[in-house]
Design goal:
The chain is mainly beta and about 450 residues long. The protein has a single domain, classed as 6 Propeller (Neuraminidase). About 5% of the residues lie in helices and about 45% in strands. The chain contains two helices and 29 strands. The protein has a five-stranded mixed beta sheet, with no helix packed on it. Strands 2-29-28-27 form a four-stranded antiparallel beta sheet, with no helix packed on it. A four-stranded antiparallel beta sheet has the order 3-4-5-6, with no helix packed on it.
Length: about 450
């Protein structure tokens, strides 16, 4: 199969007939009207920010067809108009399909507040996750170095409620998703040692909790179930004596949960470590009890950052690998993008590597309306699957079909570090990708500071 590569400087036009047959949300296309084909062109590359550090971590399609982006900012100038201190804050902005800013808002406390994910909720608003270092301002409470910080926004970007969860150590939330009952499930990492066992299923410490905490150490998966108004319903942690970090969580059809992340432990809750860091998946009951756990990978390092339900009822997991053995059957270079498909019982159904001779990783999976997937991340390679690189890292977009075969890829970047973190399928068969850039040349038209929020659109 022939693969197509595009860059901002050289545009190769091609047609994927039937690949993109979706209709514009909220504006159905008449059957007699000719649908727009995906042409493999860059519509625009834009940057946003101020003179300090600014980045995007998530982008969602608003009900009105505009785009809402969540990131973090340390800037107090440029596009950041409501911030006067240089600490890091959540940055929420809404832009038109042409990239013009509709509104920009920041939220946080007196210390650094780092955003990690944004998801649209059933009421047209948004649920955000991240972590905070101090109480004050928009942050109502803080128990230690880092706490989970979960924020509910209205459709207009106003803060409706916020909740902090944590103990004296570093506790970081990486994903919040709405659940079938209208509540929320939040996953991340808990400093078990600092919590002294109090992060477990029982909300008050007991002897059993304390004994359990002795077996765990460092960071563990931490999962918290919240009501629709942010009240804690249960919490539990999973892991071993080393480092275990949950980056994503999905609810299954029967209301249970798959918690997805990376582990280098080989004891306590982990029974099948393959080698150093593995993809580690934990199946959790509706009440937060562990049902089963499985490792995937090779004898080197695997990191998983993103997960998604597939159209056939299974689950797709993406990250990177440095292995070429056990579950990993191919190796391109120093670190490859690695994707696997598993079923609800954890059986490995398929796996696929993508890469070149250098480093690449995947950060997010976007489900497309035709059953295919858009994978976003970054690459340093100029060979293998990726034929262009402008600098240290380029932002990467890959299109794969429902059999995980690579159909299309594009890189955007300058001579410095550029990252793609999230993507949406937007109007007229277009894709909009959000991330960050430290470049100010080649594909990147402008950089206002150390790092800018990056937004580019493929049509």
């Amino acid at each position: 199969m022939k693969l197509y590569t595009i860059t901002y400087k050289t545009l190769l036009v091609f047609f994927l007939i039937g690949f993109f047959s979706c209709k514009k949300e909220d504006s159905p296309i008449d059957d007699a009207e000719e649908e727009t084909e995906f042409q493999g062109e860059i519509e625009y590359v834009k940057t946003y920010g101020g003179s300090d550090l600014d980045k995007a971590v998530s982008i969602v399609l608003a009900d009105d067809g505009n785009y809402v982006i969540l990131g973090s900012t340390k800037s107090t100038d440029g596009d950041i108009i409501d911030k006067s201190s240089s600490d890091e804050d959540f940055w929420l902005l809404k832009v038109k399909p042409n990239g013009d800013i509709l509104w920009s808002k920041t939220y946080g406390g007196p210390e650094d507040d780092t955003a990690s994910s944004l998801e649209k909720t059933n009421d047209g608003g948004y649920i955000a996750s991240g972590y905070s270092r101090g109480a004050g301002g928009d942050v109502g409470n803080n128990e230690g170095f880092h706490d989970f910080w979960v924020v509910k926004f209205s459709a207009s970007g106003d803060l409706q409620w916020e909740k902090s969860f944590g103990f004296p150590g570093s506790d970081k939330a990486y994903k919040a998703r709405q659940t079938q009952d209208g509540g929320y499930i939040v996953s991340g990492v808990l400093d078990v040692t600092a919590s002294e066992g109090e992060g477990g299923l029982r909300l008050n410490s007991t002897d059993q909790d304390a004994n359990r905490s002795i077996q765990h150490a460092g960071g563990d998966y931490w999962v918290i179930k919240l009501s629709a108004t942010g009240q804690m319903q249960w919490r539990n942690y999973f892991g071993g004596a080393f480092t275990d970090t949950a980056y994503d969580v999905l609810q299954t059809s029967n209301g249970e949960y798959l918690v997805i992340g990376t582990s280098d432990s080989d004891d306590v809750d982990i029974s099948g470590n393959i080698g150093t860091y593995d993809f580690w998946v934990v199946k959790v009951s509706v009440n937060g009890e562990i049902l089963w756990e499985k490792n995937y990978g090779g004898t080197q390092i695997e990191n998983v950052y993103a997960a998604s339900k597939t159209t056939d009822g299974n689950f797709l997991l993406f990250g990177d690998t440095r292995s070429d053995d056990v579950d990993v059957t191919s190796d391109f270079g120093k670190a490859d993008i690695w994707g696997i498909k598993i079923n609800e019982q954890g059986a490995l159904l398929s796996q696929q590597s993508y890469g070149g001779s250098e480093f690449e990783t995947a950060k997010h999976i976007t489900n497309l309306s035709n059953g295919n997937y858009l994978i976003t991340g970054n690459t340093r390679s100029i060979d293998g699957d990726f034929t262009n690189n402008n600098g240290q890292n380029d932002a990467l977009v890959m299109l794969i079909d429902n059999k995980e075969s690579l159909q299309f890829q594009a890189t955007i970047g300058g001579s410095n570090f550029d990252f793609a973190r999230d993507a949406i399928e937007a109007e007229d068969n277009t894709f909009v990708i959000a991330g960050s850039t430290q470049s100010s040349d080649k594909d990147i038209p402008q950089n206002r500071g150390i790092e800018d929020l990056l937004l580019f659109k493929l049509k």
